């Protein structure tokens, strides 16, 4: 092999019938990738990390950054009975918040809430649940 070429070692859990090697989409239980010129271990993975896991984590971090600066989207739900305001979120965009609304409404209806009104807005709520009496927030 030429200088700098990567060599993929066969994993013990791979079938030898078809001489297949571990690929990025499979587990790396005993696989390692080693450079031939330096013979240094580059990767030794004991767990599988999928691209979806990475994208989910990046999305979560981005949403937290937006929330920190008060730019995240929240679902505000106001009910007449009980007299409460609920905040659900944060979301990175209004479309994601809109997709989640029906689940929140169903949960509140299952708890016998009445007069449910929803709004999607950018905010940074201090409390996620506000119970109102006739004069002030409790």
Question: How does the SSE layout of this entry go?
Answer:
Layout: E1 6-8, E2 32-35, E3 41-44, H1 51-68, E4 73-79, E5 84-91, H2 94-110, E6 117-122, E7 129-131
Describe this protein's structure:
The protein has 138 residues and is of the alpha+beta class. It folds into two domains: 1-48, no CATH class; 57-131, no CATH class. The protein is built from two helices and seven strands; from the N terminus they run βββαββαββ. It has helices at 51-68, 94-110; strands at 6-8, 32-35, 41-44, 73-79, 84-91, 117-122, 129-131. Strands 6-4-5-7 form a four-stranded antiparallel beta sheet. A three-stranded antiparallel beta sheet has the order 1-2-3, with no helix packed on it. β4 and β5 (84-91) form a beta hairpin. The longest helix is centred in the middle third of the chain and has 18 residues, at 51-68. It starts with 5 loop residues before the first strand and ends in a 7-residue tail after the last strand. Residues 1-46 have low confidence and may be disordered. It holds the Pfam family DUF1816. Residues 1-21 are annotated as: Disordered.
């Amino acid at each position: 092999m030429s200088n700098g070429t990567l060599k993929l070692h066969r994993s013990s859990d791979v079938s030898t019938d078809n001489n297949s090697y571990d690929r990025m989409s499979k587990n790396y239980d005993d696989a390692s990738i080693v450079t031939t010129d330096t013979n240094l271990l580059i990767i030794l993975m004991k767990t599988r990390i999928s691209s979806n896991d990475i994208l989910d984590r990046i999305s979560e971090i981005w949403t937290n950054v937006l929330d920190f600066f008060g730019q995240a989207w929240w679902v505000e739900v106001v009910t007449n009975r009980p007299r409460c305001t609920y905040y659900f979120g944060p979301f990175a965009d209004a479309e994601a918040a809109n997709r989640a609304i029906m689940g929140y409404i169903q949960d509140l209806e299952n708890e016998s809430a009445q007069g449910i009104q929803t709004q999607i807005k950018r905010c940074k709520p201090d409390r996620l649940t506000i119970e109102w009496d006739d004069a002030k927030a409790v």
